[in-house]
């Protein structure tokens, strides 16, 4: 399908050039009504104002020119109000694609845009102060799926986890564990202000007591070391439960210890982009076109995230990736323009850095919001969520809405074992296909001696087939937008079309040739579903 679109675009552009019409960024997409054709262009509507002519007149002129050099795969070109140019693709083209899908198998839909290129995707990056929350879960799954999409385009991807184990939060964690340790020894609870609550703190303290005994002194490093190690192992295990693994872990503290932060701060001072005011250190962002200057180091001496994050991204730039992607929650939206501005002021090219901002997650149960407080440990952890609804549901639910949209995670829907649950609906389509193939095998239906696609003439056969061949297109869209939702939406529509096909067209019939042809469609649909599931990181069950 991509090659057909490219061919049409080339033909349209040739006509525009021959007519000396201005270039426009027009669309070529399926029309809202299938009777108008398979692809439709809005080019005439865009040209009307410039040419001071009616869109219909322009569309008819372009269409007539296109008809004079008819593409063999196009059976008809028409014009509809208010000025759309419609293209009907030969049904034989769609039928011919079945063999391509079957022969390509697990490679169908893969691109080569990223061949010989490298990408770094940083995601999750939660400090080891507590269990991963559902918000961290959305970050993790978005980052991992974006990585999968890049790999499908040929990129060599490094999945990276960046964290801080030396800041204020880690100090409060250590003090919280210490307070619980001495409480276990009979002392009054002396929890620090904003201390971490929850059973996991008590469990860490109990473990320290069991291993180290009762003789520890206040302020010893064992509280911090054990707490950090325990929580980070728990984080890694939670990610393992989602089948997410990282290639590299980088610690914020590194950039203080190796002098990178001092170096880039001095360089900014040399460029007169750092100044002191009110006992704080400021970055002169306003001189770089930003609305206001930003604090780099607080009056307390504590740096803001902008400082180590700039050093960290400078390090990633030096590693010479072709593409750098960061996946952040909405709370990071204000800081990262300043990081990019500082990098550019230091002479670095940042065009290959992409920042993906996702909105937060609300858990719903019985239609009501589940209250959560991370500090008080009053929340449903990521592990809890996985235990309740399973890996596949968690992964799919976190990507089935655009990352730009707030996500309401409906626990009741996620637990539902019916077609209402979108994950069940998708996986049931795959399982139903597997059952069809199994029955065909039992009856010794095979494709070894070939099949004749000309038997496929039913509307629902063609309706399914026309959507199947668009899979590579949707994979490309997901790559261009770095938005996994596009693939999730595609799979839902593909499953809906398969179910319509299944309800209208018996696969195993008394007509051997027809049966073999329909079985070929079914096997091709299975390949595409499995490939889409693979990108999203969900399983493809054979039975349900």
Name a few traits of the molecule.
544 residues, alpha/beta, Gyrase A, domain 2, Isoleucyl-tRNA Synthetase, Domain 1, 5-stranded parallel beta sheet, 4-stranded antiparallel beta sheet, 20 helices, 13% strand
Structure, described:
This protein is an alpha/beta fold and 544 residues long. Among the domains are: 2-89, 2-Layer Sandwich (Gyrase A, domain 2); 168-241, no CATH class; 419-536, Isoleucyl-tRNA Synthetase, Domain 1 (Orthogonal Bundle), CATH 1.10.730. Helix content is 50%, strand content 13%. The chain contains 20 helices and 15 strands. It has helices at 2-18, 43-51, 55-67, 91-104, 134-152, 168-184, 199-212, 222-241, 254-257, 260-270, 306-318, 336-345, 382-389, 391-399, 411-415, 422-442, 459-468, 471-481, 485-504, 512-536, and strands spanning 28-29, 39-41, 74-80, 84-89, 118-122, 156-163, 248-251, 274-277, 280-283, 294-297, 323-329, 353-358, 361-365, 368-369, 407-410. It has a 5-stranded parallel beta sheet with strand order 7-6-5-11-12, covered by helices on one side. Strand 8 and strand 9 (280-283) form a beta hairpin. Helix 7 (199-212) crosses helix 8. It is globular and about 85 Å long. It starts with a helix and ends in an 8-residue tail after the last helix.
The global form is: globular
Number of strands: 15
**Which segments are poorly predicted (pLDDT under 50) over 5 or more consecutive residues?**
none
CATH topology of the domain at 419-536: Isoleucyl-tRNA Synthetase, Domain 1
- What is the overall number of helices? 20
N-to-C CA distance: 33 Å
Highest CATH level, the class of the domain at 419-536: Mainly Alpha
Rg, Cα atoms, Å: 29 Å
How does CATH name the architecture of the domain at 419-536?
Orthogonal Bundle
SSE-based structural type = alpha/beta
- So, the CATH homologous superfamily of the domain at 419-536? Isoleucyl-tRNA Synthetase, Domain 1
How much beta, percentage-wise? 5-15%
Largest sheet geometry: 5 strands, parallel
Integer average pLDDT: 92
Biggest β-sheet: strands ordered side by side in the sheet: 7-6-5-11-12
The percentage helix is: 40-55%
